[in-house]
Amino acid sequence: MKFIRWFCGGLIPAAALLVAGWGLAHPAPPTQTLEGEVLDEKNHAVPDALCTLTGRLLPEEGLSSAPDHKGHFQFLGLQRGEYLLICAAPGHEPLKRTVDVDDAAPPFLQMILPREVVVRQSIEVHEQAGALSTQRTAPAETLRNQELTNLPLVEQKFKAALPYIPGVVRTPDGRINIKGAPENQGLLLVNSAETSDPVTGSFAIDVPVVAIDSLQVIKDAYNAQYGGFTGGLTTIHTRPPSDHWLYELQNLPPNPRIKSGHLVGIADYNPRLYLTGPLVRNRLNFSESLAYDMDKEPVRGLAWPHNEIKIHDFNSFTDFQYVFSEHHLATATVNVFPLRRQFANINSLVPQTASSDYGQKGFSVNVTDQYVSSSGGVFATLFQAVDFDSNAHGQGPLDMLLTPNGWGGNFFNTYDRDSDQEELLETYKLPPKQHLGKHQVTVGGSFLRRVYHGTSRSHPVQLLGSDGSLVERIDFQGPGRLSARDVEGVLFATDHWMPSEPLSLDFGLRYSGHTLGSQASVAPRVGIAYSPGHHGKTVFRGGMGLFYDHSALLSGDFPANQQRVLSFFDTQGNLTGTPLTFQNAYGRLNGSGTWISSPDHPGSVPYNWDWSVEADRELRPNAVLRVSYLSSRGYAQFDVNPQPDLPTGPALLLTTRGNSRYNEFETTLHVRLKATTEWNISYVHSEARGNLNTLAQIYVPFDQPVIRPDIYAPLPSDTPNRFITWGQFKTHLWGITASPVVDLHTGLPYSLVDARQDYVGQPNSQRFPLFFSLDMKLSKDFRLPFPWVRNHIMRGSLTIFNLTGHTNPRDVYNNVTSPYFGHFVGNQHLFFDTAIDVLY
Q1: SS3 163
Q2: How confident is the model over 374-433, as pLDDT tens digits?
Q3: Rounded to 5 degrees, what angle do the CA atoms 606, 608, 609 make?
Q4: Cβ contact 549:228 at 8 Å
Q5: Under DSSP, is residue 377 helix (H, G, I), strand (E, B) or coil?
Q6: SS3 call for 264
Q7: CB neighbours (10 Å) of residue 509?
Q8: pLDDT single digits (tens) 811-831
Q9: How many other CB atoms are found less than 10 A from the CB of residue 578?
Q10: Exposure b/e, 146-159, CB count within 10 A at least 16 = b
């Protein structure tokens, strides 16, 4: 904490003064705007094209620009260097062209897209670009800013968009699961920096959607630069600041809450602001993204007005981009993300009085420096500091009641966690080398320090039978003072080798060491992409790799948690036997295969083996089909397991014997008919199995009142069959654009329990009914004559969720002793949202 405050309060202002003085003393190297038009062979505009620009100082996936109705496109704020421009459109052959940007303004480009295979250009020699590329052996699923803006998101958060990606499932408790693993086992990178809760690994640090340029999910990240996860990799690249002053406003008016035809207040208010422009021309560019949320989310199954989750949060993302020279670029970002969520975990069986509140506050500061040497090598240095504090508490001091019909009393646990994280990442991308083809070698290393301290204290929990009698009581003893730290060092090297144009291979090796967990881990990776034939219409990809997770901070102080004391009662309410006091300890197997408790940390880190194969086929110039298979195996996962019969007495053991497996078959068809019409249609067949008592499942986001024996079974996110499609098209009704999302999948699993909350039968052997949802966003662009918006596009939108009103229950009476046993409740109804935006 002191280090972060010193960094923000001292180093950054000093650096800002130094940079400002340097900028006044040296002439500014100009940034350039690359402009052009996309035409067909008859010199007609092709407005439904898409142009992508890539370069060594740009994000790996590049920048995209959709031409306007005249075919005009532009890319702002480009530094000196060589770029690759690719333009493609349905019914035309895509083109690629190398563009050199220097001190002089680039020429206006004409990209003529022919319908024939041979490309004719008189300006300079160039080559045809296939619609499919072998540049990446593990391509990412990407949602860009335009899609994040147009799609019907149930909340204006990037996490709300992730389930639109095949293989990503969001369970009713809000957990994101990628390839069967919860977000805590995944990794979130924002502009290449780790941006998650340092203690739990949850995606709790938000970035305003208006600031996001692209959101990606990589299920098989074979690049050895990536590590610290065993689930999926999620990356966010924010919009670079512009060298022209622009602003954008979204969700201006609040949404009213109407009950029985009467206005009863505001349902939600979610304004967004994006402001960008040059502070010093051609030297220092700036952007500011602000998001405020006041939401009252109703939960079906509870009576209004005591059925709402109340959310207040504010998010500020500030970005400075400084140009030292045509070869040297630096950026600095500051992200502030306070949040308060009242009654955060209510559902049809959990009233507000029995729920927990959640709060967080914190900020992150990121400084990135990129330098291109005269030989073409790229040096990149990244430093980020994160201060993240979270807390949770119930609504009062009453004992918590677990009944066959739901929860009562007050939530039992209160925690406070104060955490810091510092990350230093150094990479060097060597100049491309020619030896049996083209080699792009990258080497680097990183340093990650995470530390936290806090408390976790609980009051009694009572388990009641169907007649209201006391069946079991759980008490807690001990101070519950917690703290842990981990320092991790990493070295990695990768080689992207292209022996020929249709073939590329990735080789990589990653070494990591921890102070908490295993001292040394080596992770090899390999990937391949191959396009047979001469037209690049088909690409085969595959790879395999070993991935090591971060060591969980919650495991570092596990024995310091409060001890659980279990007391059992007969039908008359009399105590039976002696209460069992469960000591918290680490568990390991002795030579005879028997569990024993140990005060020493297991000394291992969870790891995962992945392999995948994929085939991409261009069916038509505007349609690409993908078929893929992914296999993932997780090992040495932290699991919590109660052991009442150990020789040393009852114990709650934290072990590293947890395993998981995930298999996925995916087929996706992407169709782009024109700039305003595209469809993504996906079917996923998957299987997710694993140990149920993972550390995150028991303690994140809230402690579980009852810890059952650990069992290997279907995971909570197991969805054998899922059909997901989304797209956008312009209707013939007043030029309205429609953006529908259809989600049809097997119901999620759940378990049966008895009065003591013990499993009845195999866990997660029951399922919710088939889930079906049709969401639709309707939007219309228009202009107003007022001076402050005269040059801006106005957009009004109406978003309708669950348009068909299909019954999609969230909850079920799963206690076999409940008179309502087997009844599904919390059915989701049709609801809507409105917005008015000011776009540039």
Answers
A1: helix
A2: 888 899 999 999 999 999 999 999 999 999 999 999 999 999 999 999 999 999 999 989
A3: 155
A4: yes
A5: coil
A6: strand
A7: 16
A8: 999 999 999 999 999 998 898
A9: 8
A10: ebbbbbbbbbbbbb
